[in-house]
Every structure is written in C-alpha cells, then in structure tokens.
Design a protein that fits this description.
By secondary structure, this protein is mainly alpha-helical. The chain has 6 helices and no strands.
Length: 178
C-alpha cells in the first residue's frame, strides 16, 4: 500500500508539472510572450511598419548601382539589415496574434524610386539621403504613436529603439547634406 501511495504521488507531481509547462506556453502551444497583452495599436504598428520597412528596402536596393560614396553604401546596408530583422520579428508577432502579414506592395515609394532611378553619383546621393531622411522621419512618427498607444512590451521596445536609432540617423544625414 505504501508503494501505491508513493507511485500515486509521483504521478500527480508529473501531471502537475506537465500542466504547468503547458499553461506557460499559452493557447495552441504558443510561447507565453506571443500571447502577451496586445491591442489594436500594436497590430497597427506592426502592419504599417512592415510596409514602411519594405519601402526602405526598395530605396536601399537602388544604392549599389548608383553611388560610389561609402557613407551612402554603409547606411543603406545598415538599414537593410536592421529592417529585415524587424520585419521578421513583427511578422512573427502578427502570426502569433492570428493577424495576416501585409502583402508586398510597390506603390508606396514608386514616385521616389522613379526619381532616384534616373540619377547617379553625387546627384543620386543628395536626393537619396534627402528621401531616406524624410522616410525615416515618417517612421519616427509611427513608432512614437506605438510607444504611447500600445500594450505589447516587445512592440513598445522596438518602437522606442526605432525612435532613437532613426533620430540619430536623420541627424547624421543632415550633417552629410550640410
């Protein structure tokens, strides 16, 4: 009888541990972070910022064949790397919230791409830096709205990082254009 009691107790401990592990994963086996509190502002930020970052990637794609300026090359590569990582993260958040990831679109910066496509060298650099600066400024406005309106901690952290990084990048660009 004593062994039955011990075996029963061990079984209860094992089952309780499994239930606790399952509870920390949230619904449908998703990590607890994915199920963390979020609201419409968080969803809107991720959806709109994915589109905005993709536009940055379109602008960055023009750089290699149109400039010989190392600063422009370095900035475009830096933006490309960080914004691809952000897109991947925000896409994961949207999926975890069971919200569709925005489709790829090319219309948002089509006018700017057309203007930049006809330029090379110093003329390209000046126009590209002015264009990317204005684009980053728009991103700051979007991120500021997410900082004050969102609930999802990781989204707010990303928005705060974007405000800081892009403010610094705009200041640096202004120095180069002066």
């Amino acid at each position: 009888m004593r062994w039955n009691t011990i075996a029963g107790a061990l079984l209860c401990v094992a089952l309780a541990g499994g239930c606790a592990a399952q509870a920390s994963e949230g619904q449908a086996g998703q990590p607890a972070e994915a199920m963390a509190a979020y609201d419409k502002a968080d969803v809107t930020f991720s959806k709109e910022m994915i589109v905005h970052h993709r536009q940055t990637l379109q602008l960055a794609a023009l750089v290699p064949q149109r400039t010989n300026t190392q600063y422009v090359r370095d900035l475009s590569q830096k933006l490309e790397a960080s914004e691809k990582a952000d897109i991947a993260q925000m896409s994961e958040w949207l999926k975890s919230w069971q919200v569709g990831v925005p489709a790829q679109e090319k219309e948002g910066v089509a006018k700017q791409v057309a203007q930049l496509s006809s330029k090379t060298g110093a003329a390209f650099d000046k126009l590209w830096l002015a264009t990317i600066s204005a684009h980053l400024d728009h991103g700051i406005m979007m991120a500021t709205a997410a900082q004050s309106g969102g609930k999802h901690g990781p989204t707010i952290q990303m928005a705060s990082r974007l405000v800081t990084e892009q403010t610094d990048q705009i200041a640096e660009i202004r120095e180069k254009l002066a």
